[in-house]
Hints:
Domain Rieske: 193-290
Organism: Streptomyces althioticus subsp. attaecolombicae
Strand order of the largest sheet: 1-10-9-4-3-2-11
Strand content: 15-25%
Number of helices: 10
Radius of gyration: 26 Å
Low-confidence stretches: 302-315
Region (Disordered): 295-319
Distance between the termini: 58 Å
Helix content: 40-55%
Transmembrane segments: 90-108, 120-140, 152-173
Shape: elongated
Number of strands: 11
Pfam family, one: DUF2231
Amino acid sequence: MSKKPGRRLLGQNRMLWLLDALERDPGRDQLIDMLGARVRALPLGRVRDVLHGTWLGHPVHPMAVHLPLGSWMSAAVLDVKPGRSRQADLLVALGLAGATPAALSGLVDWAELRREQQRVGLVHAWANTAAVGLYGASLVMRLNGKGAKGRVLGYLGLTAVGVGGLLGGHLAYRQAAGANHAEEVPHVVRDGWHRVGGVDDFPVGEAVRCVVDDVPVLVVRESGGEVHALAERCSHLAGPLSEGTVADGCVQCPWHGSVFRLSDGWNVEGPATAPQPAFDTRVVDGHVEVRLPGDGVPDTVEGAATAGATPGTDGGRPS
């Protein structure tokens, strides 16, 4: 059979097929549930948020892996030279020391992921655990004068690190683990005031979900009349904040427990490392209007009428 001119046969990406199959495989779910519960039960206190990276604004784990990875790669370069290299021995030991905080930060992040992400993350952890074991054995061999075996074990460890890195990249870039899931909000919502409903549509102290330019928005009216509005999808993994708990001027995500301050969206507690986009609010003629801060539209009713939505348009709607 001849091929048609100009027609290309596209081969399936085998690597992506394997990774997608790993995401769908429920065979390890019972183990994942057990390990996740134990990690979440660890008495870490405020250290848990430190490990998540709440203080940093993004996850700590990708930064923490640089020490072991850089140390072990440097040791591999030095191992190319004949004879024993004490510098390589030192780098292997340094990498092992740095693996502990890297693993702990990754573990607390993994326990708060979606199931498909956890399936990939578990194998990622297995690969890195194998790497630590191989480098530990390599160091023992090196210190006992068996440099050749130590080198072989080191290169096997580096291979395991490479597999772990591949899976970590899939987690971060294909599955968006650790990404800010509210980042696009300021780029999607149009400038100007948007009417989201009448004041009576927002019972005091209750979380109400509205939509502005197809972006879900959380609106909460306080007993004193002040109205707060945040992006409704949690920055951690897009959990529905409107289904969460409102208390003490904050809202808690129902999925993984991240806590955000209603007044400005600040992430008071993790695992979220990024704050929620917060909206300016006002009440005009008994209706609540919201806008992104600093959009350049005059803070007047006339400005809102021209730049934002008016009653009967799609600028906003309670849901």
